[in-house]
Design a protein that fits this description.
The chain has three domains: 2-158 and 335-365, Rossmann fold (3-Layer(aba) Sandwich); 168-333, 3-Layer(aba) Sandwich (Rossmann fold); 370-413. The protein has 15 helices and 17 strands. It has helices at residues 2-12, 42-54, 81-85, 135-143, 168-171, 194-205, 220-227, 241-250, 266-273, 288-292, 302-314, 316-333, 336-357, 368-394, 398-413, and strands at residues 21-24, 29-31, 58-61, 64-68, 76-79, 92-97, 111-116, 127-132, 151-153, 178-184, 210-216, 233-235, 253-255, 261-262, 278-281, 285-286, 296-299. The strands form five sheets. It has a six-stranded parallel sheet with strand order 12-11-10-13-15-17, with helices on both faces. Helix 6 packs across helix 11 (302-314).
């Protein structure tokens, strides 16, 4: 979803006003981390690059072989980024990120505008504008030390459904069956059982025909479904919005689940524009309460989630009405036309004033990482030991405690 949104922005920017260079790379290895970024296929890369070029965008590929994860700036190693970056003319750098100080942006001499997805704060003077993806992100940006005048809520824009097709025929699901499901990136750390537990409850207590289809997500979903005796369908993740749209057309109810919650809920937005009623749950981040609005319900307990899904399954007309309201709400709030104008106006305003905005900015030296490598390596292991201890002591509750502990250590050591 992240890649699709930024790529679509590059496609849609007015080329009479903006000369767009789209810099991208395949994921490198994260040193001292078990996390593995999904790698797109050569066919996907070819299709996406062709689409960019055909719309007048200069697609610039660079290489990053490794990231040093113990350092909070996540510095890149064995990269040709700087050679590529200095080979093109740049007035403004636009990026999607967590909001915290990060390589390479703190080493860039140009004005940087970020689409802030986690509410982090970077004190670097060249971060001239922070576009929060939700009101929650803006509040967190300010709470973390950001200047309110530098922040503006710019929702992720929605792409309308691109097909009326669905996967029911391929999956042998008839039109009378009520299908629940969700789509998510493949990451074990965000696996959550709320959705599958509620579907299992509905199957046990309702006389309706119920099935489920998940697209993407951790393999833990399939393992968990098998462990509770729940049969359903799992589709491979896809960066092609046609496939996503076709998948969402297969569902009757969008049963969302994510361990850490949402700072916006882009997948939820996509479901809403496909007229799906949304059920979710509270967690560490709860920006999706605002995102969903009248298009569904964010439940506080598993029991509440179970009961609501059972109610909707028993009377699907209630769910359909909520889905219709949610679609109208989403189309009005997250339209591409409104978001695109907002971003283009911001770009033009920053370009007019960038010299004044960058008056006191001096990029940080790239040599800084050699000097602090050992210090942050020790800090990294202290944090990891703390995390392991909290998980052992508090289990699931540690997801609410961990961010508080991490922020404490960041303030202590930085």
């Amino acid at each position: 979803m992240t890649y699709r949104t930024v790529k679509n922005l590059a496609l849609k920017l007015n080329k009479d006003k903006f000369n767009v260079n789209y810099m991208w790379c395949k994921p490198g290895k994260d040193l001292y981390s078990n996390f593995s970024h999904p790698v797109p296929s050569d066919k996907e890369i070819e299709c996406q690059t062709r689409e960019l070029v055909d719309s007048g965008v200069n697609a610039v590929e660079f290489v990053v072989n490794e990231r040093f994860v113990p350092d909070p700036n996540l510095p890149w190693k064995d990269t040709n980024f700087w050679d590529k970056y200095y080979s093109i003319d740049t007035d403004i750098v636009f990026t999607w990120r967590s909001g915290r100080q990060e390589y390479p942006f703190c080493h860039i001499n140009e004005a940087v505008i970020e689409w802030n997805v986690f509410g982090g704060y970077d004190k670097s003077k060249n971060i001239v504008k922070s576009l929060a993806i939700s009101p929650w992100c803006k509040k967190d940006f300010i709470r973390n030390g950001g200047n309110e005048n530098k922040s503006e809520v710019v929702y992720l824009p929605l792409t309308s459904p691109v097909t009326n097709e669905n996967f029911r025929k391929e999956l042998n699901i008839d039109s009378e069956t009520i299908v629940c499901g969700m789509h998510q990136r493949n990451e074990d750390s965000i696996f959550d059982s709320h959705s599958l537990d509620a579907i299992k409850n509905a199957v046990n207590k309702s006389n309706k025909k119920i099935d489920f289809v998940f697209m993407g997500g951790s393999s833990k979903y399939k393992d968990y479904a098998n462990s509770i005796g729940l049969k359903g369908h799992f589709l491979e993740s896809s960066s092609d919005y046609f496939d996503v749209s076709k998948f969402l057309n297969t569902l009757n109810i969008y049963t969302h689940a994510r361990k850490d919650g949402e700072t916006l809920g882009a997948a939820i937005q996509e479901a809403m524009v496909h007229k799906l009623p949304i059920i979710s749950h509270t967690s560490q981040w709860n920006a999706h309460i605002d995102t969903i609005g009248i298009g569904g319900k964010v439940c506080k307990t598993q029991n509440e989630y179970n009961n609501l899904l059972l109610k909707w399954v028993q009377n699907l007309d209630i769910a359909k009405d909520i889905g219709k309201q949610g679609k109208l709400f989403a189309e009005e709030r997250y339209s591409w036309d409104g978001v695109l104008k907002q971003i283009e106006d911001i770009f033009e305003n920053i370009d007019r004033n960038k010299d004044k905005l960058l008056l006191n900015w001096r990029p940080l030296s790239l040599d800084m990482y050699k000097k602090r490598k050992i210090y942050y390596f020790i800090r990294f292991y202290i944090l990891n030991l703390t995390v392991m201890m909290l998980i052992k002591l508090f289990g699931q509750r540690s997801t609410r405690i961990l961010p508080i502990i991490k922020n404490f250590f960041r303030k202590l050591f930085t």
